[in-house]
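Q: CoA-binding domain-containing protein, please. Structure only.
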Amino acid sequence: MPNIKGDDGALKTIFSNSKIIAVVGHSEKSSRASYQVAKFLQAVGYRVYPVNPMVKQIDGQRCYPSLEAIPEPVDIVNVFRHPDYLPEIVESAIAIQAATLWTQLKIYHPVAEKRAIEAGLNVIMDACIQREYQRLGISQK
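A: Structure for CoA-binding domain-containing protein:
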């Protein structure tokens, strides 16, 4: 599966077929983009798991130290971490059999992208999941 950024049909399918999103690098600070995007995703009907080993809870919800610690299958791994962390995150996404790896704006790593594609993940890099959802006019879940 190639990087499908810009393939509106594939993006719509991902949004409609997904229910659970792990937000890697989720901040507890409401001023941060990761916090705001996670809240948006929850508001439109997705179950969101915050992943940040430095934080125990975010707004009363347990925060997980890793993707592997999440207690159920994850559809989308949405990444808010520096690109240097992507190879490790991709390996975790593959290990938990996530369907899609989505990295936020300015987060791109060509080696990690190649590995994710070779492992069969849908890959969207350097794109805001909230903006794409809104741009495509997806109806709430």
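A: Brief note, in case it's useful. Residues 40 and 68 are 24 Å apart (CA to CA).
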